[in-house]
Write a structure and sequence with these properties.
alpha/beta, Rossmann fold, 4-stranded antiparallel beta sheet, 12 strands, globular, ABC_transporter-like_ATP-bd
Length: about 350
């Protein structure tokens, strides 16, 4: 199972340049969270700070009763073992085949026998769908396969927290869709806490339980997926609609004159798009952290955009959810399973 991460008043700067300030959020245990933001807002810096590779100027990162920025080197080293990281480019060793790349953390950090290492490595290779490719070098496989190999390596120490730094970077839309499905399936299977940094709007709209948005050196919002996808906050609405009209400019933020000019023209920021059904595990199960479609909106009296929660087969999952959950046999360690919206 995953662990909760509590971030309180976190500030990071390089010299006189503040990257972001006073960031506070809670990554719930076992849930999938996504962090969005325009280029240059410090999303990757946030990941590196979470894992202790960078030290913040102020603030706290609580993992259980441990405050990461204030740990001794020994305790920091031990706490990092809770993390697995998928880097943007996979960060594989080019001279090692996939098997040895994936086995590297086990050989470096444990005293397991080679037979035990092989059992674990092949198990993770199977989880990410790379059986048969373990003898290949990183240069002999596609970008999508390198991402999956990097993910297998991130999994070998059975981490309770997995960080994904732009996993869709360099992938075409089809491979991104496959990777998104793999992420959802892994979360359902291992129950770890996932945080994904991404620019991909489809990933943000369909995969996570929670979404956050960094902009202008601060965390604008962080909360349940439905809260952000129904938000009227201008920067959130602009980013999720991928429109030019709004606070975000070519170099992150627009100046006052640009915003005033837009206001005089009276540009319509556009209607919020329908909220899609959340992506389901391939086996049709329901992840432990997954909520019924529309439940946050109903609880807070928010009307969803027209067409929300309708899948590509025309099924309305607000209506379908209770019938399908009731019709399925519960699976071990999860809620009752069901057919999948968003598939």
């Amino acid at each position: 199972m995953g662990v909760e991460i509590r971030v309180e008043g976190l500030t990071k700067a390089f010299g006189r340049q503040t990257i972001w300030a006073d960031v506070s959020l809670t990554l719930p245990a076992g849930e999938i969270s996504v962090l969005l933001g325009p280029s240059g807002t410090g999303k990757s810096v946030f990941l590196k700070t979470l894992v202790g590779l960078l030290k913040p100027e102020s603030g706290h990162i609580w993992i259980g009763d441990r405050d990461l920025p204030r740990l001794s080197e020994h305790l920091l080293y031990e706490t990092r073992k809770l993390f697995g990281v998928l880097f943007q480019d996979g960060a594989l060793f080019g001279s090692m085949n996939l098997y040895d790349n994936i086995a590297f953390p086990l050989r470096e950090h444990t005293k397991k026998s080679e037979s035990e290492v092989r059992r674990i490595v092949m198990e993770k290779i199977d989880m990410v769908g790379l059986v048969g490719a373990e003898g290949k070098l990183p240069g002999e496989i596609s970008g999508g396969m390198r991402k999956r190999a990097g993910l297998a390596r991130a999994l070998v120490l059975d981490p309770e927290i997995i960080l994904f730094d732009e996993p869709d970077s360099g992938l075409d839309p089809v491979r991104t869709a496959y990777l998104n499905q793999l992420i959802v399936d892994l979360n359902a299977q291992i129950g770890a806490t996932f945080l994904i940094v991404t620019h991909d709007i489809n990933t943000a709209r369909t995969v996570p339980d929670n979404i956050g948005l960094l902009f202008r050196r601060e965390l604008i919002m962080f909360g349940p997926r439905e809260m952000l996808l129904s938000s009227e906050e201008p920067v959130v609405r602009q980013f999720l609609n991928a429109r030019r009209h709004g606070p975000i400019g070519m170099s992150e933020e627009k100046d006052v004159s640009e915003l005033e000019a837009e206001a005089k023209l009276g540009h319509d920021p556009g209607q919020l798009p329908p909220i899609p059904p959340q992506l389901m595990p391939t086996d049709g199960g329901v992840r432990r952290s997954q909520s019924p479609p529309g439940s946050w909106l109903k609880a807070h009296g928010v009307q969803p955009p027209p067409g929300s929660f309708i899948d590509d087969l025309g099924r309305d999952w607000v209506q379908e959810w209770p019938r399908h959950v009731a019709s399925r046999t519960p699976v071990a360690g999860a809620q009752p399973s069901m057919g999948g919206p968003g598939r």
